């Protein structure tokens, strides 16, 4: 990339704010040599304009700030600035007992809340070496895949909103209401449900959940067909998505990108198939893979994943085994309420777990899962006490955001908006 | 994960750079000397671990050296993971940046700098990413206070209003 | 009555025949005469006239009328920060429809909005920006703090968050994490009632802050 200025790497404390602002501007400083489609023979000089797509913008998904250097309407450089919804989740998690960290960590990537808690709980279960019963694993898979569908529906709705197809947004919200009804049936909350606990799930599914879920599974593929048909026959959407912002798989791998973005570029890497966790190996499903790696492939891959998730849930529901919904290890999981009246040990365990929480043997572990945006990993370091010493969530959106600059360079602003939409960034995950 | 013997062989190949190996819950970790981290990662890339999944920091507060940086590497063709760890003290927190070889480390190293204060030399653009640019302190360190507002209950409301006068 | 400028109605010099007929019809309606017919019925006078008029017209103060109009047509600012924004979308969706109250016009520009719904957690980096957005909004303006994170500190009581009360005046706090769309509606309707009952011209009067305007 020509004309890139390298700034001094070590910042000083006496650095003034204006110095910072100068460095914060886009670093393409040299005048651009090649003239794009210049009809008057290169006589006019092109100025570079740095435009701020501020944190408050209807088309950025959340509070993302982009400093865009434009030559006319062509994006020459792009710099994302994040941190506007930084909540200190990792710091708060160090202050709470292990099971109290679950609601805190769930609010990180706020569309994939089950995935956040799954990554954290998987790490803690690996440290504790506790067995999760199969019924709990299947229930986890059902809820994870329902959450994947819900996350893709919001992505579809907001992306279509950005591209101009406004009615898709309301249709997707209609389906998402059905999914949130199901979550409310199983756990009482629509979002951030605290349904997964260390060792299993907090409660078994109620009567009527299965019927409602089957009815939903009947409707969902037909509705996904409708949305695909609407968008695939919309000439404007197709022109905005086809051939724009392509990026090849090697660049993406260098940038650390995983998930639907990598699969759209042709690399079929999916942690559910590569390193199956929580009994994903019992289910048969396909991985949608794109060919060109442009925006249309990213859109098509995510749309196809909805069908695959429906298929997984059907298999999980058909094969749901009987059994406990949480591990029987009383040092880790609360005993059932009726035992508290009769058994002294159950009472003591309940008391210890609720007041202090369980202790985890010292160690460090990194547990990755496949969230709707890519590899979501949780690093937990425990020092033997009842509170974690470090919880770090490797969020896929944080790493995928680095791919936005190469994607948008050379294209128009409208392509940059489409690329941001297809990137599916969730600022809660980026900023934690 | 390479099993325990594979891990030992790997550590021997890396020679002086590898200080220690840890094999815990079927996961392999190599603790390396901070001065050689870039060469270690390049050597591991040669062995097939071509994907840097995560770069994050830890604060081992009472133990010295205090600040740790952890690199999670992934081999996609053999589905293998390995962890590389290094530790630096707070008074000399300089680590060589690996952004040239692994472009994914850009934002992640900035986050480690922001949250822990580890300075990555040769990083193209090292500045705070999550906190405001003029923030002082490194929040994720264990001795940084958690902060927050006192919770005001309605029974204390008169006291709170008085203190505001 | 006929053929002259009626009291209270401007007699336009070049008024056309239709206009005179319309103004006559209006006055006859008020006065209680039948519109058609060669002999309009007798004019009502006194208390009968008053009662007749009261049955057909609504009188109110201008303040109250304006407050009613304002309360039924909030233009919310499309501003979502975090998880509460997802529930805000659902409040605008088809099941919990915010449009049946008239609030579906989410404006993107703060200059065109009069209600800011702070949906989500406010970090210290974002607080000055939200304050600037609030200042850009034109009077009269209201603010709803949606969710526990901006009303108080919420789940995260730590260094990174600011409760919204610290930097801007909030009219209604909606608790929840995240509040259900019905809860958000309840908050918006409470604000609507607030606006209808207390017609006001700005937050400075409400919060005893008259005199704190910045000098131009």
Description:
- The complex is a heterotrimer of chains A (432), B (165) and C (216).
- Chain A is mainly α and 432 residues long.
- Chain A has helices spanning 17-24, 89-93, 98-106, 113-128, 134-163, 167-187, 209-232, 235-241, 249-254, 260-264, 271-274, 295-318, 344-355, 396-400, 404-408, 413-423, 427-431, and strands at 49-53, 65-71, 74-81, 196-197, 200-201, 363-371, 374-382, 390-394.
- Chain A is globular and about 80 Å long.
- Chain B contains four helices and seven strands; from the N terminus they run αββαββββαβα.
- In chain B, strands 1-2-5-4-3 form a five-stranded mixed sheet.
- In chain B, β3 (51-59) and β4 form a beta hairpin.
- Chain C contains eight helices and four strands, in the order αααβαβαβαβαα.
- Chain C has helices at 17-31, 46-56, 62-71, 83-92, 127-136, 148-151, 181-197, 203-206, and strands spanning 76-77, 115-119, 142-146, 172-174.
- Chain C has a four-stranded parallel sheet with strand order 1-2-3-4.
- The longest helix of chain C has 17 residues, at 181-197.
- At the B-C interface, loops of B face loops of C.
């Amino acid at each position: 990339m020509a004309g890139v200025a390298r700034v001094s790497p070590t910042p000083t404390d006496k650095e003034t704010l204006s110095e910072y602002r100068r460095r914060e501007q886009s670093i393409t400083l040299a005048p651009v040599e090649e003239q794009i489609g210049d009809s008057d023979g290169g006589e006019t000089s092109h100025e570079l304009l740095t435009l701020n797509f501020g944190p408050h913008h209807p088309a950025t998904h959340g509070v993302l700030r982009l400093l865009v250097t434009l030559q006319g309407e062509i994006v020459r450089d792009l710099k994302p600035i994040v941190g506007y919804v930084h909540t200190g989740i990792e710091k708060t998690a160090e202050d709470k007992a292990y099971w109290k960290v679950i609601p805190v960590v769930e609010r990180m990537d706020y569309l994939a809340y089950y995935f956040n808690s799954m990554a954290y709980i998987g790490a803690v279960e690996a440290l504790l070496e506790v067995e999760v019963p199969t019924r709990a694993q299947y229930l986890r898979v059902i809820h994870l895949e329902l959450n994947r569908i819900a996350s893709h529906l919001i992505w579809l709705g907001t992306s279509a909103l950005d591209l101009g197809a406004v009615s898709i947004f309301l249709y997707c919200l209609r389906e998402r209401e059905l999914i949130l009804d199901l979550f409310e049936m199983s756990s009482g909350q629509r979002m951030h449900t605290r349904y997964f606990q260390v060792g299993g799930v907090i409660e078994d599914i109620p009567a009527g959940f299965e019927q409602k879920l089957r009815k939903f599974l009947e409707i969902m593929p037909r509705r996904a067909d409708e949305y695909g048909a609407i968008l695939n026959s919309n000439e404007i959407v197709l022109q905005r998505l086809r051939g724009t912002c392509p990026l090849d798989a090697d660049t993406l791998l260098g940038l650390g990108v995983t998930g639907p973005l990598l699969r759209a570029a042709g690399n079929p890497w999916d942690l559910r198939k590569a390193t199956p966790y929580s009994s994903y190996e019992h289910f048969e499903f396909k991985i949608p893979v794109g060919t060109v790696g442009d925006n249309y492939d990213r859109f098509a891959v995510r749309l196809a994943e909805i069908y695959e998730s429906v298929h997984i849930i059907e298999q999980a529901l058909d094969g749901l085994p009987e059994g406990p919904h949480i591990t029987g290890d009383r040092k880790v999981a609360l005993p059932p309420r009726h035992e508290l009246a009769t058994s002294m040990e159950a009472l003591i365990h309940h008391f210890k777990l609720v007041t202090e929480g369980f202790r985890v043997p010292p160690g460090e572990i990194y547990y990755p899962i496949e969230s709707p945006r890519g590899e979501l990993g949780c690093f937990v370091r425990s020092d033997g006490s009842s509170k974690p010493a470090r919880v770090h969530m490797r969020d896929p959106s944080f790493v995928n955001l680095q791919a936005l600059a190469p994607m948008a360079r050379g294209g128009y602003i409208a392509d940059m908006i489409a690329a941001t939409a297809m990137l599916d960034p969730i600022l809660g995950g980026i900023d934690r | 994960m390479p099993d325990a013997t594979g891990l030992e062989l790997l550590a021997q190949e890396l020679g002086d750079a590898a200080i220690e190996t840890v094999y815990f819950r079927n996961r392999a970790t190599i603790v390396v000397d901070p001065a050689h981290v870039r060469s270690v990662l390049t050597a591991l890339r040669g062995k097939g671990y071509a994907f840097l999944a995560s770069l994050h920091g830890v604060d081992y507060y009472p133990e010295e050296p205090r600040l740790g940086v952890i690199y999670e590497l992934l081999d996609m063709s053999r589905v293998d993971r390995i962890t590389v760890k290094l530790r630096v003290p707070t008074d000399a927190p300089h680590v060589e940046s690996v952004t040239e070889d692994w472009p994914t480390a850009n934002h992640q190293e900035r986050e480690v700098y922001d949250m822990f204060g580890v300075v990555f030399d040769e990083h193209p653009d090292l500045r705070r990413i999550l906190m405001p640019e003029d923030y002082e302190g490194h929040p994720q360190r264990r001795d940084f206070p958690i902060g927050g507002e006192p919770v005001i209950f309605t029974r204390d409301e008169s006291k709170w209003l008085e203190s505001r006068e | 009555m006929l053929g002259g400028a009626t009291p209270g109605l401007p007699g336009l010099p070049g008024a056309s025949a239709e206009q005179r007929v319309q103004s006559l019809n209006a006055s006859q309606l008020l006065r209680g005469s039948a519109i058609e017919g060669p002999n309009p019925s007798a004019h009502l006078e006194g208390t009968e006239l008053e009662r007749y008029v009261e049955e057909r017209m609504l009188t109110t103060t201008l303040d109250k009328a304006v407050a009613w109009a304002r309360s039924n047509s909030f233009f919310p600012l499309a501003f979502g920060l975090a998880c509460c924004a997802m529930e805000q979308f659902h409040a605008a969706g088809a099941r919990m429809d915010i449009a049946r109250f008239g609030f579906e016009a989410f404006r993107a520009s703060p200059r065109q909005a009069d209600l800011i719904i702070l949906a989500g957690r406010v970090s210290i980096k974002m607080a000055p920006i939200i304050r600037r957005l609030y200042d850009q909004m034109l009077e009269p303006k209201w603010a709803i703090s949606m969710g526990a994170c901006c009303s108080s500190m919420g789940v995260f009581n730590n260094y990174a968050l600011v409760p919204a009360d610290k930097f801007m005046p909030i009219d209604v706090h909606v608790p929840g994490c995240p509040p259900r769309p019905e809860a958000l509606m309840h908050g918006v309707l409470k604000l609507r009632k607030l606006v209808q009952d207390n017609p006001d011209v700005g937050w400075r009067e409400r919060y005893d802050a008259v005199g704190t305007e910045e000098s131009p």
